[in-house]
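notes to self, project folder thing:

trying the whole complex as one job this time. last attempt i did each chain seperately and stitching them together was a nightmare. two parts in total, labels are on each line so i dont mix them up again. if this works i'll redo the older ones the same way
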Amino acid sequence: MNSLFEFFSFSDPNIRFVVIGSVLLTASSAIVGSFTFLNKKSLVGDAIAHAVLPGICLGFMLSGTKNPVFLIGGAFITGWISLVLVEYITSKTRIKEDTAIGLILSVFFGIGILLLTVIQKSGNAAQSGLDHFLFGKAASLVGDDLYTFAAVAIALLIAVFLFFKEFTLLAFDKDYARAIGLPVKRIELILTSLIVLAVVIGIQAVGVVLMAAILITPAAAARFWTDRVRIMILLASVFGAISGLAGAYISYTAPQMPTGPWIVIVISMIAFVSFFFAPRRGVVSRLLRQYTIRRTINDENILKALYQLGEENKNFFIQRYPDEIIRKRKFEKDNLLKVLKRLRAQGYVESSGNLWGLTEEGKTRGQRVVKIHRLWEMYLTTQLHIAPDHVHEDADTIEHLLTPELEAELERLLDYPKQDPHRSEIPYK
Amino acid sequence: MNDIYIIITASLVATTCGLLGCFLILRKMAMVGDAISHAVLPGIVLAFLFSGSRDSVTMLLGAGLIGILTTFLIEFFHKKARLQTDASIGVTFTWLFAVGVVLISLFAGKVDLDQDCVLYGEIAYVPLDIIILDNGTNIGPKAIYVMGTIFLLILVFIIAFYKELFLTTFDPAFANAIGISTALWHYLLMSAVSATTVASFESVGAILVVALLIAPAATAYLITDNLKWMMVIAAISGIISSITGYYLAVWLDGSIAGAIATCAGILFGLTLVFSPTHGLVFKKINALEVSTKPSN
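result (full assembly):
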């Protein structure tokens, strides 16, 4: 607890550095990653992340120092080459994109590992810490390195801000972008360079192996909360920043722990919560909605059956045995009784013993369903010219879904027809 | 003798991976294979903690289950949460891999694994762990027997169920129509991939196993249109990569697994340019011939 307090008071300048650094890195990766996600190129991000390793090693081998300018430069070059190769292989041969990505990713990483082990055995004392690029170490972000990385992160943010409209347009409608004369190729080039840059600095925090996670997981999580790009990117950066902060804290309290995996676990937890519990798009809310709809359909089908039985006798309030309802429309008996009891509790049906009949409310609701069904059949046959024997199934679905506004419009459009295509009377009030 | 042992182990890994890789590529599931190879890590660490050793059947079974779990999670996020496939793969495997690495750090004292081993294996140590029979005869490294068993199992699996694998790969609709469950074979194949990944893990690590799954198969795919030949060529190119990779590593004094992946990549590059059927040079020549042919 003590360390928690110490950490979040930010009194130690080193802590302040590390926090600013890792939050900047994760947040800027999340922002750039949002566009990777929207372009459905998440795995390309993964490929670049692995492919920068040989570049970092080469940068080190050629310069002999861990000067970030050389490392970033090398990483930038091999990251770019990997992308070009993926695109080249996909377009020039019959190899599919996913195979090309996996191939380039693993081979480049293999080359990187080979170079890294060669460097480690070369005895150059400056090499220690180079393996932090594998799993990341936020705590190593101090001093001059931090200024370089912070500068790159800020440059990324400014670039995204400047090209926001173009990037968004490209992600959603490339053809339109081309049609209005945007230089699509050049904008893609800029975006890709930004992704490579984001990867290059992001691996400081999480390492090459897990870099893909801080690019795309925040965006994937944010996507579940909103349909608006601006809000999505804002949320993604906040999620990224939270995980970066967590990473810095873990790096501080448990220096022997690799930071990257913890950052990824934090951001993944945020993502899983979003996948399951986000309103509207989340799994739980989706299932709940399905359940409600299925329940409504069940309820209305029984009310409809009772109403149609009533039509035959010209008396809607006769009480009947469940078997009679089943003869009109097929229901499972246990289920039917369960739903009937629920409808009774809601005041749509009444019962005496095992006899069930509609109440006034039940009749109104059943009647509305029957009316929409027949109006829809009318609409399909007269307006869309579909044969009358083909319209029933469609109407059976729409009768539960049509809103009152559309219902009114349908009535107006068809001018209150008396009968449906099968010559059944359409019941109005 | 040591280099022969290492080359044999690497070749066994490469051949097994190459065979399975052909199916992964043809089913457009290369990245799912990549995801599985990362995702088995937590399974390996947990199995380690429970059983206390590396070479247990439990571990292989556990790996099979984790492979199925990974595949299931990817599909679950895609179908139930409507997450796009690429993101679904990316989120799932990075998470499982991160959990694995953290578990290793947490139980560093109890688990005989470290982060470097996870990344590129310890194939150089293969000759150190040898089996000595009761009468004192040295019958060679354990890794060869483990990998050899896996290789035979996979080979038998592919030969025995060739028809099912073939049909579900190329014509899933037809396979379903004649009563072969695509889902069953999908999951069986994924379990085979996870079992292979786990068995190869110690030798080449989690990420380089991907290189051996994909690169030799992709190389073969650029040479032939016949699945059987594709598997043979993938196996051969895996073996070539292992041998050249080993000597490259010795020459440079670097990671053997890294060098094998490098050679697999080089072999692919050469095939890409010079393949007699799908290579770039050949295509160019063909195009020239067509354009220079007098039109009549």
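what i see at first glance: Chain A has a mean pLDDT of 86.
need to look closer tmrw
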